Protein: GntR family transcriptional regulator
Organism: Pontibacterium sinense
Amino acid sequence: MDKKSPIEITLTERDDAVTITQWVYQTLRYAVMNGQILPGRALTIRELARILDVSPMPVREALRQLAAENALEIQGNRRVMVPRMTAMKFNELCEARIAIESHAAARALPYIDATRLNQLRELDHLIDVAQEQGDLEQVSILNQNFHRALYTANPHQVTLPLIESLWLQLGPFMRLATSKLEEHYLIDRHNEAMSAIEKQDAFALQLAITADIREGIAFAGTPELLHSFIEQSTHAVN
Amino acid sequence: MDKKSPIEITLTERDDAVTITQWVYQTLRYAVMNGQILPGRALTIRELARILDVSPMPVREALRQLAAENALEIQGNRRVMVPRMTAMKFNELCEARIAIESHAAARALPYIDATRLNQLRELDHLIDVAQEQGDLEQVSILNQNFHRALYTANPHQVTLPLIESLWLQLGPFMRLATSKLEEHYLIDRHNEAMSAIEKQDAFALQLAITADIREGIAFAGTPELLHSFIEQSTHAVN
DNA sequence: AAACCAAAAATGTGATCACAAACCTTAACC
DNA sequence: GGTTAAGGTTTGTGATCACATTTTTGGTTT
């Protein structure tokens, strides 16, 4: 069992309110999003079932669902793995995020009321706190919550599932970004976003969101880091 | 069995090369996309399994996959159905299509070579032929193929799955559109798109794609038709 | 020593079964 | 008559099993 690198998945408490399949889905989703599973590493139903201590059935369903969201890739061999990344694909994912999320932000703008604005302010504040404490994982989670809170202001929202799919695909590789980003001084684009919201200025909001996304992946400007990780991903367990 | 309206699904030949699950998935997907299943109608695994003459297992997996693509909706009761439509949601889906597809088109533009251009020309011609023959279903299919051929020119394409998800969600309600659109004279936006491609003019291409999408759903300009169908969808089998 | 091939182990797919929760029907009751 | 409560039925979930295909292994040949 050397070639098959061990998989370490953070297990959360299983709530009886959710089905086993849902719990497995959430667990695997978190593992994928945080790069706990090496891209290219073959995932087998029975192995995951052993790790998670459930029967193969819920794992089957969860894997299929994650594959449908492009978080996992099913090869012709019917083998499942986290997709490998390339520099070009990474770039396309980022540009897609910008296109869709700035659209979603503009569409949500008219629906943002005082309550929502306060919620955004609070999240922004929590992000600052987490940033000062250097808790990058928390920053990442809160940042997602901020974006989600913004887009879901639109009660007829239809793009969030698409956006989450992009987050899932970028997730494993963003971890690398944030870990190197520690030294990088971050301008708070969320403040810009919120002043744009107060002014109901859609264009300014789109600019702020675009800048926020671009800076979150600023390390893409240092291609050698991205390249090194992508190489790692490419040469991983075949 | 009056409340439970019968489901009529077009069955295609089952190819032994694909798994039963895949076949069921394709069959159900086609049925959803073409509005063969009434929005709100509760879908049960065993019923579909009887109709498709397969065991419940492949149906289970196919339903979960379609739900992950937002083609179906899983309610809290764990019941599965085609999501109901609202006028606002319809509008959001259309605007999302425009945002994402014009982005995808611009991103694909630099990769379009002579071969791809010829392929697009041929599809455009086939659409004209089908249009003259009044075969609206064929027009719809070919139109999708045209868009797909355009976006997939980009070898690092990541947005097509998202776009197809939007198509799936709009599908059941587009049928109504095209059926009323027969009388409507359609300007051929594909020609505009292709001349923009030849000039490598990204902005013009985006305008052409936007116009093409907007006209494909032109009936949204006649709100009463949309509204009537949405009402039908809303008041369908509870 | 590297390449090839057959046997053995492991894997995904699909079927069937058990069970608890949800749904529908029926009957009693206000 | 409309509402509620309890019964039986149907449904989704999850477990287990069988089988064909794939992957790995171990031995053989060039």
About this structure: Chain A has a mean pLDDT of 84.
